[in-house]
Please model this.
Amino acid sequence: MSRSEFGEFLIARRGQLQPEQVGLPAGRRRRTPGLRREEVAALAGVSADYLARLEQGRDTNPSMAVLGALSDALRLDEVERHHFGKLAMGMEQKASCPKSGQAGEEVSETLRAVIDALHPTPAFVLGRWLDLLATNPAWRDLAEPIGMFDAAAHNNLAYYVFAHPDAPRYFGNWAEAADVIVSALRNAQARFADDETLEARITDLQRYPEFDRRWREHRVTDYRSHLLRVEHPLRGTLEIEVETLDPAADQSVNVWLVDRRQVHAPALRLVNE
Model:
């Protein structure tokens, strides 16, 4: 994660807010979208010069009070505030943090036993780059018909969502799923700041306009708890509740829980990093 990540977040969020959203008059036509730096500074009770230094990376030690005031001024929700705080801590701690090392791509026998024991509930293991590291037969039966094992998916959830041409057709709420993927990669970037392979993956994904737009806008959502709607060619419309479990430092067990409101629906769960 670069030292400018915090500043980029500030600039992106400032550009996404309209004056009327924060109680300011719209005024005359603006040359650029969003709030002016001076307006955000006034709302947060800091000087415009200080906000400029934060945005430009010339000040890397904002106090908790300043972070709280800026979060209020930018109308951040709880997920966004948490991410904002992690970015601020990363600016100060990056130089002194221990290296995260190579990603653990080998799945332990314990994790393999866990996903096998969940059968017939579909389950799989994700790596820090959102690669599919291990799956059980039930999940393969569910995922193969919607193309998750096609060459376009590169055995990776991010590439499936953004590179597979059929993903928007199978995912009824594709836009929400896309935001979840971006948020998961933002989280991985914050956790593994020195991972060059992760940075290379993110750069490669920016070839896809929908990913690039979301990444530049610093989209952050709750990737640990959300709904996924799948238009499955064999099972029809599925509503999947998504939760998160991280049993290892850079791997997660993933399970899908489908249509619990339907008494006779098969139980499927997803828990992802």
The two ends are 18 Å apart (CA to CA). The CA atoms of residues 204 and 212 lie 10 Å apart. DSSP finds twelve helices and seven strands in the chain.
